[in-house]
Design brief:
The protein is an all-alpha fold. It has 4 helices and no strands.
């Protein structure tokens, strides 16, 4: 195993693709439309999501958002949780 593979162990280290990034951007867009994100916060989170390399990066863009319309209705996405 090379150093790149060694570093990317565990699910938060898994690499993401454009489909994963687009899914998170869609969640952020919904949060913005619902009024749960300010324009500046939305821009910052979308920028982080589009630049994400790992699942941890995507999860960081979602941290603190309330889940609406999902299974965990009304709960918040904590730092250790994953939606990506």
């Amino acid at each position: 195993m090379n150093s790149w593979q060694t570093w990317h162990t565990g699910k938060d280290g898994w690499l993401v693709n454009d489909v994963d990034r687009d899914r998170v951007v869609a969640l952020l867009r919904d949060a913005y439309v619902d009024g749960r994100l300010s324009p500046d916060d939305f821009d910052d989170r979308v920028t982080r999501a589009l630049g994400a390399v790992t699942r941890a990066d995507l999860n960081a863009a979602l941290t603190g958002l309330a889940v609406v319309g999902g299974q965990a209705h009304g709960s918040r996405i904590a730092a250790g949780e994953t939606l990506a």
